[in-house]
Amino acid sequence: MTPVRVLIIDDSATMRRLIQMRLRSDSRIEVVGEASNTFEAKAAIDILAPDVLTLDVEMPGQSGLDFLVEMMRKKPMPVIMISSETQRGSTAALEALSRGAVDCLGKPRVGDSVSAFADLPGLVIAASTARLLSGRPVPAVPAPAAMRRFEWSRKIVLIGASTGGVDALETIFARMPENCPPTLVTQHMPSGFLAKFAQRMNARYAPEIRLAENNAPLQQGTIQIAPGGDFHLCISTGLRQRCLLTASEKVHGHRPSVDVLFDSARPIADRIVAVLLTGMGQDGAQGMLNLRRAGAICLAQDEESSVVWGMPRTAWQNGGAERLVSLNAMAAELLAATELTMRRDRALP
After folding, report:
1. What is the mean pLDDT of the chain?
2. Are residues 159 and 46 in the same domain?
3. Which of 54, 153, 191, 306 could form a disulfide with 278 if both were Cys (CB 3.0 to 4.6 A apart)?
4. Catalytic status, residue 302
5. In this structure, are 179 and 276 located in the same domain?
6. Burial class, 8, CB count within 10 angstroms (exposed 0-12 / middle 13-18 / buried 19+)
7. With bands split at pLDDT 50, 70 and 90, how would you rate the model's confidence at 113?
8. Which residues are reported to carry the modification 4-aspartylphosphate (predicted)?
């Protein structure tokens, strides 16, 4: 395998050194150069021809976000944004994802240099295989009067996503009505970014979108996103389903993990519609297979519409996913699978 060539762009010499040390510990990656500002970066890109960029969001002069927009217009390539998890940093990083960046990673906190950027090599490898989908417009939210009538069948939607998932989730959320089925989401992302992501989506789209809290009830019209950090998101299986946040080790290198969410729903699999969206690796694939065997409806995003066709591909190959669905059709599929009809009504427990 030819090493993935990476250019590091950051105005901080300390950050450049930490990123370089982490990337050079992985034999699949070659750091071909560094740049301390976007002027240097433009020259380095032309000379060094990197496969992937790591780009600081907040830099003096031209910001990383402005540089990303310019580059995606002139010379698109995979970019991983590096940002603080502050309110300002998270806002800029999420805007970068909507403008074509493949993924984002939080800067290490003071005294955290040992584990700094531990996830970066995997993100770089994923980015090197990414299908660039920048420039795809997010569908506008339909006016309330124009929303299709939806009667809930009491089925619950579970969604797992990773690299490219922010844009994919936004596409789905934009097409969900105000009274959508209860939905739980596990998206691989630092906790600071997840909080800002939930706020951003809630302000834009019809359902109530928020971070999941322990013991929060599952309700129609509400989409709850795993908060990450120290916790996995699970679903209770009693008479009335609730969110459960569990503090335990990472699974497949992730916390929150999609497999943990899916496996928690096996006792009520006949009431579950599970979805795996774009992302690298295999998190969620085994959990989806277990759900399907127990009677759940299981869908995976197709290759053409995925930024990285890793998690959904694994679920398709192991038999966990019964059908591949394009991103633009996914919301309609979820609504059809959770809508009350006479035929489905007879099958409800």
Report:
1. 91
2. no
3. 306
4. no
5. yes
6. buried
7. low
8. 56
User: Can you tell me the distance from the alpha carbon of 268 to that of 265, in angstroms, rounded to the nearest whole number?
Assistant: 6
Residue 41 counted as domain residue: yes
H/E run at residue 34: strand 29-35
Nearest C-alpha neighbor of 9 from the set 36, 44, 42, 45: 36
**Band of pLDDT at residue 260, cut at 50, 70 and 90:** very high
Query: What is the average per-residue pLDDT within 191-201?
Result: 92
Of 185, 172, 246, 251, nearest to 214 by C-alpha is 246
66 is catalytic: no
Q: Assess contact for 282 and 321: CB atoms under 8 A.
A: no
CA distances to 108, 133, 158, 188, 328 from 227, rounded to whole Å, are: 18, 26, 15, 10, 26
Q: Which of 90, 134, 162, 306 is catalytic?
A: 162
Judgement on whether residues 217 and 187 belong to the same structural domain of the protein: yes
Q: Which of 167, 259, 283, 302 is catalytic?
A: 283
CA angle in degrees (0–180, nearest 5) for 160-205-99: 70
Give the pTM: 0.91
Residue 188 designated active-site = yes
Active-site option among 84, 128, 188, 259? 188
Q: Are residues 261 and 224 in the same domain?
A: yes
